[in-house]
């Protein structure tokens, strides 16, 4: 939700703390992150942003983005220093104009000409890994802490490998295996081979799903682990086992909700054989019962995944051997927060948005701390090539997940 | 004021004090002797809320402080080049400006949606050549035929009769900008029970190994079945009536009234206008909310949908009015339109709700089925025009 606004998510994780003591302590010193913004203050910035964006036909939205980011970065404090967002509105505006041009072309063409819109989709598909890479880089470069810039030294090729190379390879391997089973099956048929064949193809065509936790692990190691702070390198080493465990538990929760829905339907007197006698009114009535459950289930699962993955990612991330992160996001607290935010958003017709965003940012900071071993004084900004914001803006406009995804 | 001083490009910091004296600054870092310089060599970050300010020195060193008010007062006093951005902060911090901004935002949004956008889309649509409308409809009939329609079951004679009447009586009532074409189609009812039954049968057949791959799921219909009653026009001027509607119409006037309504959509360029309006709304929403997450998008989607249906209803009323005017001109009683609409609605109430058969994207299809809340209003309008019509018949 607040992915864009908080430096904890849009940019590499943060840093460290000084203490001019020369003696290197082994235990390190644990320091909290803090968020000092307030909902009322951000509401005022937000409403002015909206008004000026409307009045200027959207041009001010680039300034609005920068002010919003600066508000959230600037209010995120670690060891008496705040983060800073450096992108200029003009930089954002340029990227946005190109991105918007592509969207408008797509929206208009999509209404009548399939060839052109398919072409644009193809182009965007090819550009997507570059967009991810470019956005990670842009956001890192535009962030500083204690006068030193973050950076990103991941390779664009690795982004293509993650988005296309590896998934396609896995799919091909799975499909070839399934085909080998198929060939054996042609000569040797049995109930067991029947089952094996179905299972093989199922596995091949669902590779995108069962492979996902591993891909996300690699992506996090890429987006967080390839970040830099000055001459310092971030390092993220995640456990495949933990990632799968998290998703397995989420799957169980999802099955639990599914079971509850089926149970409720059943207790309302429906069964599959009755389906064709159902009246539309009955279907509508059961939807009214089911919809809140589905919504609730999706919020529970979102909170569960966000909290656990965030904890695992930060707890296994460090900057050189100087800063170790510690995240203690609570699934239940996060779930309550999401529920409260949704409720407030609905009853205020959207005007609770600024308070919601601040509430999340505050929780995000509260649950993050870092242990500093030694001093943070030795970091020095590195020269990095100037960077266009097009990738970042493309990602924004198409609502693509172009950051680490760790924002709450 | 107190803060941290950072060496150029470095994260090393020391506590420091920065003091302003007119257009000079005096910087004292730790125990070192003070340094002084000209204020206009400093670059001061814009104020946003109360976030710490960054003052960058010419050599790349940085001074970070939370003492926003001292900085702003001094920037204004010496008229520093970075003081201009202060205006935004004033706007963002005074409740009276916020109140104004809030009211202005709501008023502008409302005014744009209610008047601005419809007006603009009308102007734009009318200034575009007719070929734009044709382009818009290009290929649409082919896709609709694939998904929704079957060939008409009307007799050749009946088709020729309606066709002849359409071309000789209704088409001459239009400006002649568009080339009208009347098409007949059969629109089958989709019966959920039937579909499920067929599915069951198919499974059984598959089990028995019979007829695999040749399953015929086409619903067998009695020859009296005329399918769903519907009519719509594509922006290109292709007007489509279903067998069901032809059967529903008891008089020629009733059928004509529906056809004229559809031609009204074409003449008023509603397809094009709807395209412009919905694109503008989507882009506007995108610009204002920027980062919508999946959860929020449900909340954004609903108002967008409501606004689009509002425009659609408006277009329907315009097309109604168009039909009424042309009917009076052609000496037909506008009540005929109201009569057939009511019959349609009654029939609709008997059937189950076939709403989900409608392709959602084709919002310019006139959806006679959805029980418009304003059927009453439509009847009232028809009545008003009918009075007018009667007056033209018997001028007092």
Descriptive overview:
The complex is a heterodimer of chains A (408) and B (396). Chain A has 408 residues and is an alpha+beta fold. Chain A has 14 helices and ten strands. Chain A has a ten-stranded antiparallel barrel, surrounded by five helices. Chain A starts with 6 loop residues before the first helix and ends in an 11-residue tail after the last helix. Mean pLDDT of chain A is 83; it is low at 1-26. In chain B, the strands form two sheets. A seven-stranded antiparallel beta sheet of chain B has the order 4-3-2-1-7-6-5, with no helix packed on it. The longest helix of chain B has 36 residues, at 294-329. Chain B is elongated and about 105 Å long.
Summary of the model, kept short:
Chain A is an alpha+beta fold and about 400 residues long. Chain A contains 14 helices and ten strands.
Keywords:
heterodimer, A: alpha+beta, 62% helix, disordered N terminus, B: 396 residues, alpha+beta, seven-stranded antiparallel beta sheet, four-stranded mixed beta sheet, 54% helix
Strand content of chain A: 5-15%
Tally of helical segments of chain A: 14
Number of strands of chain A: 10
**Biggest sheet features of chain B:** 7 strands, antiparallel
Oligomer: heterodimer
Query: How do the strands of the widest beta sheet of chain B line up side by side?
Result: 4-3-2-1-7-6-5
Give the amount of beta strand of chain B, in percent: 5-15%
Q: Extract low-pLDDT stretches of chain B.
A: 209-221, 352-371
Number of strands of chain B: 11
Q: Could you say which structural class the secondary elements and strand pairing of chain B correspond to?
A: alpha+beta
- The helix-and-strand class of chain A reads alpha+beta
**What is the terminal separation of chain B in angstroms?**
91 Å
Largest interface: A-B, 66 and 58 residues
Largest β sheet strand count, sense and barrel closure of chain A: 10 strands, antiparallel, barrel
Rg of chain A, Å, rounded: 24 Å
- Helix content class of chain A: 55-70%
Low-confidence stretches of chain A: 1-26
What is the overall shape of chain B? elongated
Mean pLDDT of chain A: 83
Question: Kindly, what is the distance between the CA atoms of the first and last residues of chain A, rounded to a whole number of angstroms?
Answer: 6 Å
């Amino acid at each position: 939700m607040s992915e864009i606004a908080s430096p904890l998510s849009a940019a590499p994780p943060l840093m460290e703390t000084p203490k001019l003591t020369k003696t290197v302590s082994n235990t390190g010193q644990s320091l909290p992150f803090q968020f000092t913004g307030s909902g009322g203050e951000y509401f005022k910035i937000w409403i002015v942003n909206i008004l000026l964006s409307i009045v200027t036909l959207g041009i001010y939205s680039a300034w609005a983005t920068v002010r919003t980011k600066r508000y959230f970065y600037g209010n995120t404090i670690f060891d008496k220093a705040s983060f800073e967002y450096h992108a200029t509105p003009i930089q954002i505006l340029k990227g946005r104009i190109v991105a918007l041009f592509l969207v408008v072309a797509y929206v208009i063409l999509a209404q009548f000409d399939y060839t052109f819109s398919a072409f644009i989709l193809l182009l965007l598909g090819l550009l997507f890994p570059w967009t991810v890479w470019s956005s990670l880089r842009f956001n890192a470069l535009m962030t500083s802490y204690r006068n030193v810039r973050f950076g990103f030294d991941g390779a664009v090729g690795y982004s293509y490998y993650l988005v296309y190379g590896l998934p396609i390879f896995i799919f091909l391997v799975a499909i070839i295996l399934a085909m080998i089973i198929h060939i054996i099956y042609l000569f040797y048929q049995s109930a067991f081979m029947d089952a094996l064949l179905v299972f093989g193809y199922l596995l091949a065509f669902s590779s995108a799903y069962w492979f996902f936790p591993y891909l996300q692990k690699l992506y996090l190691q890429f987006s967080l682990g390839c970040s830099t702070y000055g001459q310092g390198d971030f390092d993220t080493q995640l456990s495949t086992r933990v990632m799968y465990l998290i998703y397995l538990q989420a799957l169980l929760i999802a099955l639990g909700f599914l079971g509850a829905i089926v149970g409720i339907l059943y207790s309302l007197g429906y069964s599959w054989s009755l389906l064709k006698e159902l009246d539309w009114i009955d279907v509508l009535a059961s939807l009214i019962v089911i919809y809140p459950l589905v919504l609730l289930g999706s919020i529970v699962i979102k909170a569960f995944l966000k909290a656990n993955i965030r904890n695992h990612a930060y707890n296994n991330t460090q900057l050189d051997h100087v800063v170790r992160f510690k995240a203690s996001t609570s699934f239940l607290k996060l779930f309550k927060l999401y529920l409260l935010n949704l409720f407030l958003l609905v009853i205020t017709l959207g005007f609770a948005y600024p308070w919601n965003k601040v509430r999340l940012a505050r929780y995000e900071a509260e649950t993050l701390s870092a242990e500093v071993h030694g001093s943070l004084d030795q970091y020095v900004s590195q020269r990095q090539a100037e960077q266009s914001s097009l990738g970042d803006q493309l990602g924004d406009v198409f609502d693509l997940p172009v950051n680490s995804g760790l924002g709450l | 004021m107190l803060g941290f001083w950072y060496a150029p490009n470095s994260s090393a910091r020391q506590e420091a004090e920065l003091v302003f004296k007119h257009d000079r600054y005096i910087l004292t870092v730790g125990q070192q002797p003070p340094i002084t310089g000209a204020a206009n060599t400093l670059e001061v970050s814009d104020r946003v809320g109360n976030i710490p300010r960054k003052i960058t020195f010419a050599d790349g060193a940085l001074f970070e402080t939370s003492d926003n008010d001292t900085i702003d007062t001094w920037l204004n006093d010496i008229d520093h080049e970075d003081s201009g951005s202060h205006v935004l902060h004033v706007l963002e911090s005074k409740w009276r400006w916020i109140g104004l901004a809030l009211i202005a935002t709501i008023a502008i949004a409302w005014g744009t949606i209610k008047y601005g956008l419809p007006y603009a889309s009308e102007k734009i649509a009318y200034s575009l050549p007719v070929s734009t409308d044709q382009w818009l409809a290009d290929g649409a009939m082919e896709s609709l035929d694939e998904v929704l329609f079957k060939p008409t079951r009307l007799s050749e004679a009946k088709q020729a009769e309606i066709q002849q009447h359409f071309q000789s009586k209704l088409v001459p009532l239009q400006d002649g900008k568009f080339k009208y074409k009347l098409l007949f189609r059969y629109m089958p009812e989709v019966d959920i029970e039937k579909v499920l039954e067929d599915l069951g049968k198919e499974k059984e057949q598959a089990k028995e190994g019979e007829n695999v791959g040749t399953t015929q799921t086409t619903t067998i219909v009695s020859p009296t079945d005329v399918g769903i009653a519907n009519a719509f026009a594509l922006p290109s001027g292709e007007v489509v009536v279903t067998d069901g509607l032809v059967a529903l119409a008891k008089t020629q006037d009733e059928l004509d009234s529906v056809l004229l309504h559809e031609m009204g959509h074409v003449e008023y360029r509603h397809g094009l206008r709807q395209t412009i309006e919905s694109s503008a709304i989507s882009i506007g929403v995108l610009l204002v909310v920027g980062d919508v997450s999946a959860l929020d998008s449900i909340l954004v989607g609903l108002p967008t949908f409501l606004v689009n249906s509002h425009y659609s209803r408006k277009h329907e009323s315009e097309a109604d009015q168009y039909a009424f005017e042309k009917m009076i001109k052609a000496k037909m009683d506008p009540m005929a339109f109201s009569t057939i609409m009511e019959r349609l609605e009654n029939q609709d109430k008997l059937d189950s709700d076939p709403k989900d058969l409608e392709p959602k994207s084709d919002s310019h299809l006139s959806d006679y089925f959805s029980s418009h809340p304003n059927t009453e209003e439509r009847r009232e309008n028809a009545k008003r025009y009918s009075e007018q019509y009667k007056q033209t018949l018997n001028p007092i």
